[in-house]
Design brief:
- This protein has helices at residues 40-61, 79-91, 96-110, and strands spanning 5-6, 9-16, 21-27, 34-37.
- By secondary structure, it is α+β, with helices and mostly antiparallel strands.
- It has 2 domains: 5-61; 79-109, no CATH class.
- It has a 4-stranded antiparallel beta sheet with strand order 1-2-3-4, covered by helices on one side.
- Pfam families: HicB.
- One of its GO terms (biological process) is regulation of DNA-templated transcription.
């Protein structure tokens, strides 16, 4: 399943059965930014507006917006897995970073 993404920010969405709306919030940042909509189209529009409004508010306040993620990921894995990853990357003609980024991208969109 592909998640909601706007300007590098991602959202988590849940359905509120009591109010019959979708409720979401931006994930991966320290600030709390929420949004909602009755349809998928409304939800997507509300999410994009929430991100844009968050960035605008930060700009007006002279505050640096929270960045969702840096792009650096440190993993601690057993040496046997590290060796297998290095072998797989080399066999595919890629660096470990290139190989791992491809695998992580594929798997994160597969669910």
């Amino acid at each position: 399943m592909k998640g909601m993404n706007h300007k590098g920010y991602f959202a988590k969405v849940e359905f509120d059965s009591e109010d019959h709306i979708f409720v979401g919030h931006i994930i991966g940042i320290r600030d709390i930014v929420g949004f909602h909509g009755e349809s998928v189209t409304e939800l997507e529009t509300a999410f994009q507006e929430a991100v844009d409004n968050y960035l605008a508010a930060c700009n007006e306040l002279g505050k640096e917006p929270n960045k969702p993620y840096s792009g650096n990921l440190m993993l601690r894995i057993p040496s046997e897995i590290h060796a297998a990853v290095a072998s797989a990357a080399e066999a595919s003609g890629k660096s470990i970073n290139q190989w791992a980024a491809g695998v992580l991208e594929k798997e994160s969109h597969a669910h």
